[in-house]
Amino acid sequence: MAAARRVLLQVLLCLGGTYAALYVLATLLLIAYKSQAFSYPQDRLLLDLTLLLLTAALEAARWHCGTKGNLTETELPLAASLVLTVVSSLLSVYFLLWQTLVLWADSVLSATLLVLHGLEAILQVVAIAAFIS
């Protein structure tokens, strides 16, 4: 049973990592579209692009720590990945609710990423508890 949870977590980490890369690319394209099609304040454009780059870096670090912690069955990298998941989720909420212009596509992309983060976080907590005991 424990091995099945680790495999499920690894599958979710791979799926989440792939989706995060596509999410960053799609969000970048949406920001480019919004900056051309709508009046997008330059200071807000810079903020949104900076937060998107931060999201990309956090997602890469989160995926690396989560995969390393799961495959080596160690708590520290998995706990670091869990913390990064929370921070990345907050950035996803920003892109879902608080960015300058939120399109329907932004909402769908961010909500899907939040669902994946939630599932990963639950399995990470279960895995950390299993590794400790």
From TrEMBL:
Keyword Transferase: no
Any GO BP: non-motile cilium assembly
Pfam families cross-referenced by the UniProt entry: Transmemb_17 (PF09799)
GO cellular component, one term: ciliary transition zone
Coiled-coil residue windows: none
Keywords linked to the UniProt accession: Cell projection, Membrane, Transmembrane, Transmembrane helix
Compartment(s): Cell projection, Cilium; Membrane
Top-level taxonomic group: Eukaryota
Protein name as catalogued: Transmembrane protein 80
Organism: Myotis myotis
High-level lineage: Eukaryota, Metazoa, Chordata, Craniata, Vertebrata
